[in-house]
């Protein structure tokens, strides 16, 4: 089936790529999804801010900056001119700002929401007319367990993912009559290079030093010791083939149990979360 994914399938920082071999790219969720879907017979088009720097990727890449309206319009105009059908849109691109709420600057917080939330929204708004015209389509938002619970020292990241969850739930109702399905995928911790590209808020308030260090170390350890992200890719593939996809797909142990525990016993959930992140 013709397929297009909007996400950073080549998302490895140059300094990290030089230090490690290209097999580390396998651990980026966007690339893992794109590669798995291609192996399963889908026509995959990925996006990148700099496609020319990723010539070694065996996936068709198109230039796209999801924070630029001009870039998004240029891409969608090209799709419409070529009468390209878009069967599946995967909103995967994003960044992670880590740090204390009080220390995170307004500029950093706005950058987090502009990228993770408004970037996905802007792309979706431009693709929807194509899907309505063809009378079918699937829109998949890769959110996070952080969009279902409050993650300490990731308050604005969590806010951006909660916002996507809310929009997806409402949008699902609005577009169902046009044959368009909307789903979210909420991964827990998976082995990736994400923690090597965190944007860290300035550490300016010493009162937070101990708990901040403990929480950030928990992120690093949890990602390093987590399973490979192939489970996320397989979940996306399952959604594509589903005739009646669900609204929400939680993937991984953390992604499944913690939101469930929060619903049934918040006090126990809160105690467990604070223990996991070594908070006093």
Protein model, in words:
The structure is a single chain. The chain has 280 residues and is α/β, with parallel strands linked by helices. It has one domain (14-276): Rossmann fold (3-Layer(aba) Sandwich), CATH 3.40.50.720. It has helices spanning 14-19, 29-39, 69-81, 106-134, 155-175, 209-224, 230-241, 253-264, 266-276; strands spanning 45-48, 60-63, 88-91, 97-98, 137-142, 180-187, 199-200, 248-251. It has a 4-stranded parallel beta sheet with strand order 3-5-6-8, sandwiched between helices. Strand 5, helix 5 and strand 6 (180-187) form a beta-alpha-beta unit. The radius of gyration is 19 Å and the shape is globular.
**Mean pLDDT across all residues, rounded?**
85
Please tell me the total number of domains. 1
Instruction: Give me the strand/helix succession.
Output: HHEEHEEHEHEEHHEHH
* Count of beta strands: 8
Q: What is the fold named in CATH at topology level?
A: Rossmann fold
Tally of alpha and pi helices: 9
Shape: globular
Enumerate the strands of the largest sheet in spatial order, edge to edge or round the barrel.
3-5-6-8
Q: CATH top level?
A: Alpha Beta
How much strand? 5-15%
CATH superfamily: NAD(P)-binding Rossmann-like Domain
Which spans have pLDDT < 50 for at least 5 consecutive residues?
6-23
Structural class: alpha/beta
CATH architecture: 3-Layer(aba) Sandwich
Helix content: 40-55%
**Cα-atom radius of gyration:** 19 Å
Terminal residue distance: 52 Å
**Could you describe the largest sheet, including whether it forms a barrel?**
4 strands, parallel
């Amino acid at each position: 089936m013709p397929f297009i994914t909007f996400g950073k399938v080549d998302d490895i920082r140059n300094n990290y790529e030089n230090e490690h071999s290209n097999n580390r790219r396998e651990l980026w969720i966007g690339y893992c999804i794109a590669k798995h879907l291609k192996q399963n017979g889908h026509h995959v088009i990925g996006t990148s801010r700099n496609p020319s720097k990723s010539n070694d990727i065996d996936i068709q890449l198109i230039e796209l900056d999801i924070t630029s309206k001009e870039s998004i319009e240029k891409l969608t105009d090209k799709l419409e001119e070529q009468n390209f059908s878009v069967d599946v849109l995967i909103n995967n691109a994003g960044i992670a700002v880590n740090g204390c709420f009080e220390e995170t600057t307004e500029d950093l917080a706005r950058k987090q929401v502009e990228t993770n939330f408004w970037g996905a929204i802007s792309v979706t708004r431009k693709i929807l007319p194509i899907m309505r015209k063809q009378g079918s389509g699937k829109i998949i938002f890769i959110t996070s367990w952080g969009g279902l619970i409050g993650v300490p020292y990731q308050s604005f990241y969590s806010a951006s993912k909660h916002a996507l969850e809310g929009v997806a739930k409402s949008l699902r109702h609005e577009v169902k009559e046009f044959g368009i399905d909307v789903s979210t995928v909420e991964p827990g911790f998976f082995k990736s290079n994400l923690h090597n590209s965190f944007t860290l808020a300035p550490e300016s308030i010493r009162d937070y030093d101990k708990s901040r260090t403990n929480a950030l170390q928990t992120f690093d350890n949890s990602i390093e010791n987590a399973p490979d992200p192939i489970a996320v890719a397989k979940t996306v593939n399952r959604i594509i083939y589903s005739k009646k996809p669900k609204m929400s797909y939680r993937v991984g142990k953390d992604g499944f149990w913690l939101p469930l525990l929060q619903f049934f016993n918040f006090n126990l959930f809160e105690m467990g979360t604070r223990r996991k992140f070594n908070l006093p």
